[in-house]
Amino acid sequence: MTSWSQALSAHPGAAAETATLTGNRGLQLEEPLLFEQDSPGHCGVDLPEPPPHKSRLGGLERQGPIGLPGLSEPQIVRHFTRLSQKNYAIDSGLYPLGSCTMKHNPRLNEKLARLPGFADLHPLQPTSTTKGALELIDTLAHWLKTLTGMPAVALSPAAGAHGELCGMMTIRAALTARGDARRRILVPESAHGTNPATAAICGYAIENIAANPRGQVDLAALKASLGSDVAALMLTNPNTCGLFEDEILEIAAAVHAAGAFFYCDGANFNAIVGRVRPADLGIDALHLNLHKTFSTPHGGGGPGSGPVALAAALAPYAPLPWIVHGDRGLELIEHAAGSAARSIGRLKGFHGQMGMFVRALSYMMSHGADGLRQVAEDAVLNANYLRVRLAGALSQSFPGACMHEVLFDDRFLKDTGVTTLDFAKALIDEGFHPMTMYFPLVVHGALLIEPTETESKASLDQFADTVNGLAARAKSGDAASFQAAPRLTPRRRLDETTAARKPVLRWRPDPPRQQAAE
Amino acid sequence: MPTLRFTKDHEWVRQDGDTVVIGITDYAQQQLGDIVYVELPAPGTRVEAGKEAAVVESAKAASEVYAPVSGEVVAVNDVIAGDPAKVNADPMGEGWFLSVKLDDPKALDGLMDEAAYAAFVAEQG
Amino acid sequence: MRYLPLTPGDRSDMLAAIGVPSIDALFADVPAAARLPGLVDLPLAQGELEVERAISRMAAKNTAAGSVPFFIGGGVYRHHVPAAVDHLIQRGEFLTSYTPYQPELAQGTLQSLFEFQTQVALLTGMEVANASLYDGATACAEAVAMAHRITRRGKAVLSGALHPHYREVCETYAQFSGLEIVTLKPMPGIADPIDIDIETACVVVQYPDFFGELRDCSALAARCHLAGALLIVVVTEIVSLGAVKPPGAMGADIVAAEGQSIGNALNFGGPHVGLFAAREQHVRQMPGRLVGQTTDADGKRGWVLTLSTREQHIRREKATSNICTNAGLCALAFTIHLALLGEAGLARLARLNHAAACNLADRLASLPGVSLVNDSFFNEFSLRLPVPAAQAVAALAEKGVLGGVAASRFYPERDDLADLLLVAATETTTPEDIDIYGKALAEVLR
């Protein structure tokens, strides 16, 4: 038995102490699956009877039932309302998740994305009827190009990882076009897993570059690895340790001197928006996350949007569609012909995540050039404030100032019997979502904290007080209380091992009862 | 007495004549945590020393199991395919992964013996 | 600035606590040459009123689909979404929550995704489904990649009646994976002659196909399996599965579909929601997130993300794909809308769509020179016109009718498709709309 499961038995959840008839606890309400509440024939939508018609389904009419449950609207509203109450959210509290940029999601964005002129617009309408959509996309592109300093931006990728794929594909296309196919991609050890995964999908071999003692790319190691068979360096800046790569100009120069491209993962753009332009750092391709830096909502996991800013050498390879300024206004280019002849093609159906474009532009226009610069400054200020408030009790991995996120490791928990995981679970009972854990891999038991600029000083102080209090409790020898955490959530320490060994990925009806043989 | 040797990647290999049995060590299974899945090669395929022979997954991590030796896969342990927990419970016995017919009967000579491996593990901290 | 809580007093207190004189000191690692001295050349901050005005002006330059008689399909369909859906997905706990990596804090998201996975498996007639992908086209490309991994064969055969965007995305992805993509010629109204050999990893067909035709692919599935290849069925109009036999019942190995029709607005093409379903034996080769049922320390049922080791943040270069995100809120909207419809509602919705399309087809095909290509269809069909379809579409638009999409928009180089028009009807199509269209088209063709 693992130590935490022993502790769990010794410290039962709070639910065991106050049993109720329903299993509900005040505002915490249990809710079964939809499929367990079926009233066959019931419907939450009133639809008219179809007019008589002769079926033209080619004899392929569905024969049996699908198996979907029927419920009324009140039951469904209650079902999903109860489910929502089991979620933590930015609207509820601080999410100190490093590299996720969990900032406030403005509601104006939601209102504007729902304007019928955007929401009720079909991508295949004649472009004469969608001029405002093209204008919005072009305006967003202008803002992104200005903020990054890059001359072009590809807007169709649906998420950050998709944007990385896009950027790497343009690099490979550019190299192929100049007859200089190269085999290797260089990636720092601290990189997020999508980086090497993307490189592998593009057919490259991946080589890791060691970090220097400050947690940044070791320039000498990089130069030693560069060669005529390196296609690109994939860097995150600020890096996943929360540090700006201060030798970035030298890095860019070395990469370019070797004939390679410089790709930047823009997940951490929140630290530098409005204060630094990636083009000025020598970057050739940079994906941005509209759902991180530009506030489009995380929605429990998506949808996102990952536009890619491109240097002039890569712009001709941008994926379709393109929106260009033509003689008669904005034009939508949907085929790889004319100026788009060298495009890598489509990465997604239709035109891109328009709903997220509206939200992001609304955010950007609300902040403006001055507000966006303030965003970066407040993000960096908030992270450093937490750094100094926590540095006494926790072990900072790379001492000194950080950018918008600060990295700690589990040295402060040494000999306490409390792991990073246990520490995070205790934080849950205190009403906080845990910070990013076990990433980046370059330190042991990583705790990566990014508050963002939308946290007030009071919120930061409460978080710091709590983390410091927990650290003190861990060091005082009370490991069992951490191993038993969380105690106050509706579910605690779910069994992920069994979930992976014997996956149950859907509901199935109970099998019909068998008559027991006597 | 079959020769038992170890690799720096925490695999063990036990020789009996010209075949060896390969698995992961107790240290490896502890590091991985609860093992949820193993991916084994098909009997008859070749493995090359230093290259991936199998994959072992825990809930949060996946690790390559590298072949310590080159040769042809004779058998794989279907038991752990159905019950990966056996790798945690008995990594040196019932939790074996695959057996290989050696290209080179002397292939184990360069690998660590039990004492050397124990010292290596102690260094890991 | 309304979204920034720090006051000037807070900032100076915090700088003092940190021990630096100004915020610039915290940007010291930025090379001097790269520091922007002032603001970038963009407008300054604006209030809600101004932003709303500016963006509303752009919206007003578009013709909303619901404001005119509307008949465009082509892979995205206009359906009515009940009001409750949008209210529920805008609850802050759904809208502003993160990926459910901490299951104790995300049982709402996890349970709804488990319900989504079940719904998709039931609809498609498959054993297991994932928690969604970006859209149908990327789901199709991922299905092809998955077939490549499973069969270890190098060729994918795509039906000529597969949505051109889906084909294009497969081709873009395959450029870099070394997979050979063989695309058959689009021949509206004619079944593809599909060759399968020992190099074929998969065959990809669409159902209903790009031209609207419904074909039983059971025989094709059998041929694929005999040859050791997988059958991938693409569905771009998921509501069709409320009326027709599901791909799983015809032997499909993987279903890659677009779920936008349920719960999600047109949104000018995005965000939408990719559906992905497969056989249980292949679950470890599936891309995307998966939610699994389990129990907690107190023995209570709950849900977690599972089989995560397929994903890129763990396998890194050996990941099954580089997908990090699912369509989250769009999947939730799908789940809620389908829950409201239920078995009876979905069946009725599908019949309404088909009935509207039948009436529309009869009306339009009765016009001189206009012929219906399809033997069968669900809610979309193809017409041959006596004039180039693109011309007709433009002329109809001038008359205030959005009459469909010309095949030439997708195939500009194919003269034999220049007269082909794709036309769709849904439950939102009224008899009046059909009447207006009929009259307008008659005028355009005169």
Strand order of the largest sheet of chain A: 1-7-6-5-4-2-3
Broad CATH class of the largest domain in chain A: Alpha Beta
Main sheet summary of chain A: 7 strands, mixed
Structural class of chain A: alpha/beta
The ordered H/E elements of chain B are EEEHEEEEEHHEH
Mean pLDDT of chain B: 90
pLDDT < 50 stretches of chain B: none
Number of domains of chain B: 1
Mean pLDDT of chain A: 93
Question: What is the alpha-carbon Rg of chain A in Å?
Answer: 26 Å
Question: Can you tell me the number of structural domains of chain A?
Answer: 2
Report the sheet-strand fraction of chain A.
5-15%
Would you tell me the structural class of the helices and strands of chain B? alpha+beta
Instruction: Tell me the CATH architecture of chain B.
Output: Beta Barrel
Strand tally of chain A: 13
Helix content of chain A: 25-40%
Question: Nutshell version of this structure?
Answer:
Chain A is α/β, with parallel strands linked by helices. Helices cover about 35% and strands about 10% of the residues of chain A. Chain A is globular, with a radius of gyration of 26 Å.
How would you portray this structure in words?
The complex is a heterotrimer of chains A (518), B (125) and C (446). Chain A has 2 domains: 108-364, 3-Layer(aba) Sandwich (Aspartate Aminotransferase, domain 2), CATH 3.40.640.10; 369-488, Aspartate Aminotransferase, domain 1 (Alpha-Beta Complex). Chain A is α/β, with parallel strands linked by helices. In chain A, strands 1-7-6-5-4-2-3 form a 7-stranded mixed sheet, with helices on both faces. Chain A has helices at residues 3-10, 14-17, 73-84, 107-113, 116-119, 131-148, 160-177, 194-201, 219-225, 248-257, 354-390, 420-429, 457-475, 479-483, 496-501, and strands at residues 152-154, 184-188, 205-209, 230-236, 261-265, 285-287, 308-310, 322-326, 329-333, 395-396, 406-409, 436-437, 447-449. Chain A is 33% helix and 10% strand. Chain B is α+β, with helices and mostly antiparallel strands. Chain B has a single domain, classed as OB fold (Dihydrolipoamide Acetyltransferase, E2P). Chain B is built from 4 helices and 9 strands, in the order βββαβββββααβα. Chain B has helices spanning 26-32, 78-82, 85-89, 114-124; strands spanning 3-6, 11-16, 19-24, 35-39, 46-47, 52-58, 62-66, 71-76, 98-102. Chain B has a 6-stranded antiparallel sheet with strand order 1-2-3-9-8-5. In chain B, strands 4-6-7 form a 3-stranded antiparallel sheet. Chain C folds into 2 domains: 69-80 and 343-445, Aspartate Aminotransferase, domain 1; 83-337, 3-Layer(aba) Sandwich (Aspartate Aminotransferase, domain 2), CATH 3.40.640. Helix content of chain C is 36%, strand content 13%. Chain C is built from 12 helices and 13 strands. In chain C, helix 8 (218-226) links the parallel strand 4 (200-206) and strand 5 (230-235). Chains A and C meet through helix 3, helix 4, helix 5, helix 6 and helix 7 of A and helix 1, helix 2, helix 3, helix 4 and helix 5 of C.
